[in-house]
Design a protein that fits this description.
It is a single chain. The chain is α/β, with parallel strands linked by helices and 675 residues long. It has four domains: 1-34; 51-221, Galactose-binding domain-like (Jelly Rolls, Sandwich), CATH 2.60.120.260; 225-313, Sandwich (Immunoglobulin-like), CATH 2.60.40; 318-674, Glycosidases (TIM Barrel, Alpha-Beta Barrel), CATH 3.20.20. It is built from twelve helices and 32 strands. α2 crosses α3 and α6 (471-487) crosses α9 (555-565). The longest helix is centred in the first third of the chain and has 20 residues, at 8-27. Bound molecules: alpha-D-glucopyranuronic acid. Alpha-D-glucopyranuronic acid binds at residues 205, 372, 435-436, 536, 583, 626, 646, 648.
Length: 675
């Protein structure tokens, strides 16, 4: 028993210690273990761009790592203070944590898949490392994070220098005034817990990978420096225009933008707010998937210079057509999650994205939907070089709290940071502000705000959102078509045909004729606000079980009839805009063959039936089937088949291709794809 071994003097110390702690807590009317958040500044809204041309100290590599399931490490909490690296001065100093003998962890990368016991962990962790810096160089030093999931507080030499809520997007802090020459103590607290007010909420069909999931670096700039710049090709295909954001420069300072390869440069000046606008003529080889031409672009002021390799192209919609560089184009695409092939956890490197997008290219795609959140900066850079068009999106997913101001602030921050990071990426042609959100007035107001934010930051790309149909109305409609076709088919049993006859009788004059086509119409008012009307539909997969439950007809009959009906379905929207199928698909365990769901054969048959639907639908100008690769998802527990992975991939987590991979590749090589 613990107490028997405690000597009276230690016992006395223990009681005194706890009493003083409780008294202290009573003074501050907080429990001694209260989870205290510290005050720390939010990072600047202006995203530091063009970082790969900067002089940086990479802070990637091995860090020390502590798990804090009761959030006791926050400074001010009873056992808190983990925000500084301390070692006991002698054997009498009582510490409740130590980085010295903590675990090692790789940065970047999620923590969930670096420790088996943390795979499902959704709470607080602490990262720690030291670094030296040569402070003889004048200028400013900025701690730059490619992204951290989900709530992050950064401490440098014991000072809370930044707090960021929201994963996936970059943020940086000027830490010049906190730096030491040697042994800078950098500690980062990250919590990947999500709830009803976060963005996304705790309900997602992807893994809540947490931690320092992206690159970390210390960026050096002059005292007066260039923060970011947007460089775009105008619709006339011969004018380059944009603006340069600076810090510490007064009005009238000269800024030069140049493209050495074509010996063109333009001179401009900063205005009162430090912004320098420019517009100049240039004869450029336009970027496209078949010709991913990139130019070195240099931007210089008296004190600073940045550079990047940029493609120049235009993207526009007119009526129900999409135009790239003035030519009609169809988006032959595939959806992805940010997971590497053959390694567990998040994708975080250029090599990861080259491999993932390289496999997508094997399908013959010209387009990738990078679902459902901003990927690392390496994704769009890889797509620029590989000639892939990209849809990038923010995680406004399913059941967002539309009426919480802090939720809106975080959502707007996600949009602003993503756009400012990638607004020069030729590959990025679509910004998406939502996925499968049901209609309500608060939802419309929230998304309208995000769409306005996007267009104010960058009006050169298309705006979209992956919409849901009016599923209940559609399904009632589908049932009558299934009944009409079922009565003339030899698939249903006599009992089932009697049920179908009752459905037809109940439909009366509205009963469809056998073999008539079924037109599905998207009418979501959000269609008015976007450029591309995108729609997630799962004909051949989800609806069948619901219809079987509702009608008492077997799911097998419904599925087989559905696959027969799909070629008679047309998809359209109530808006004179291009339509885009942002998701369709079916699950399959790689290697499982034969009849029935979750086989490769069934998945391939759903794809074949989907292609007939899409080929019947002239408004549809693109699609990104769900999904390239099987991915981790807590929603998908079916033992022996899913094992907490969503298996709608065309390849499994190790890159093993399923039959449907080849079915999609052949379709894209055909007429529809070649349009
Ligand atoms: C939804 C959702 C995806 C999800 C997919 C599925 O449409 O957008 O995030 O993974 O369907 O059910 O597999």
């Amino acid at each position: 028993m613990f107490l028997r071994r405690v000597t009276p003097s230690v016992f006395l110390i223990l009681i005194t210690f706890l009493c003083s702690a409780v008294l202290a807590a009573e003074d501050s009317d907080q429990s001694p273990f209260a989870v205290l958040s510290v005050d720390a500044p939010r990072p600047s809204q202006h995203v530091m761009g063009w970082v790969d041309s900067r002089e940086v100290l990479s802070l990637n590599g091995s860090w020390k790592f502590l798990v804090d399931p009761m959030q006791v490490g926050t400074p001010g909490s009873l056992f808190g203070g983990w925000a500084t690296t301390r070692v006991p001065e002698d054997e009498y100093q009582l510490l409740e944590y130590s980085y010295a003998n903590a675990a090692d962890i790789r940065v970047p990368g999620d923590f969930n898949t670096q420790f088996d016991e943390l795979l499902y962990y959704r709470d607080t962790v602490w990262y720690q490392r030291h670094f030296d810096i040569d402070l003889s160089k004048q200028g400013r030093y900025h701690l730059w994070f490619g992204g951290a999931n989900y709530k992050t507080t950064v401490y440098l030499n014991g000072q809370a220098v930044a707090h960021q809520s929201g994963g996936y997007v970059p943020f940086s802090i000027d830490v010049t005034d906190y730096l030491l020459l040697k042994d800078n103590d950098l500690i980062v607290q990250v919590n990947n817990r999500l709830d009803a007010d976060t963005v996304p909420t705790e309900r997602t069909d992807w893994w809540p990978y947490g931690g320092l999931t992206r690159d970390v670096m210390l960026v050096h700039t002059p005292e007066a420096y260039i923060v970011n710049a947007s460089v775009q090709l105008d619709d006339d295909l011969s004018t380059v225009a944009g603006h340069v954001q600076t810090y510490g420069m007064s009005a009238g300072e000269e800024v030069v933008i140049s493209l050495p390869e074509i010996d063109v440069s333009a001179i401009t000046q900063t205005d009162d707010s430090g912004v320098a606008r420019f517009k100049f003529e240039a004869s450029l080889d336009q970027w496209s998937p078949s010709n991913p031409k990139l130019y070195e672009v240099q931007i210089a002021s008296d004190s600073d210079q940045i550079s990047d390799r940029l493609g120049f192209r235009t993207i526009a919609v007119e009526g129900t057509q999409i135009f790239l560089n003035g030519e009609p184009i169809r988006f032959r695409g595939i959806s992805t999650h940010e997971e590497p092939i053959g390694r567990d956890g998040v994708a975080y490197s250029r090599a990861d994205m080259d491999a993932l997008f390289g496999e997508a290219k094997q399908l013959g795609v010209n387009f990738v939907r990078a679902a459902h959140y901003p990927y690392s900066r390496h994704a769009a850079k890889a797509a620029d070089e590989m000639g892939l068009l990209l849809w990038e999106e923010v995680p406004i997913y399913w059941n967002i709290n539309w009426e919480n101001p802090e939720t809106l602030r975080i959502a707007r921050d996600q949009v602003a940071r993503l756009v400012q990071r990638d607004w020069n990426r030729a590959s990025v042609v679509v910004w998406s502000v939502a996925n499968e959100t049901t209609y309500s007035e608060p939802r419309m107001a929230f998304l309208n705000r995000l769409i306005q934010d996007v267009r104010e930051l960058d009006d050169t790309r298309l705006v979209s959102a992956a919409l849901l149909g009016d599923t209940r109305r559609e399904l009632q409609h589908v049932v009558t078509y299934l009944a009409a076709n079922g009565l003339a088919s030899d698939i249903p049993s006599d009992r089932e045909k009697r049920i179908f006859q009752q459905v037809i009788n109940a439909a009366g004059d509205n009963a469809p004729r056998r073999n008539s086509s079924f037109n599905l119409l998207i009418t979501d008012p959000l269609g008015e606000l976007v450029d591309l009307v995108s729609y997630n539909e799962y004909f051949g997969w989800y609806y069948s079980r619901f219809i079987a439950d509702q009608t008492g007809v077997s799911e097998r009959t419904i599925r087989l009839l559905m696959l027969e009906l799909m070629p008679k379905v047309t998809l359209a929207s109530a808006f004179d805009k291009p339509m885009f199928i942002s998701e369709f698909g079916a699950g399959a365990k790689a290697g499982k063959r034969g009849e029935g769901v979750r086989t490769e054969d069934y998945q391939a048959n759903v794809y074949r039936a989907q292609f007939e639907m899409i080929a019947n639908s002239p408004q549809v100008q693109g699609m990104t089937p769900w999904i390239l690769k099987d991915f981790r998802a807590m929603l998908r527990s079916l033992g022996g088949v899913q094992d907490f992975r969503n298996r709608k991939g065309l390849i499994d987590e190790n890159g093993r291709r399923k039959q449907a991979f080849y079915v999609l590749r052949d379709f894209y090589a055909g007429d529809w794809g070649r349009q």
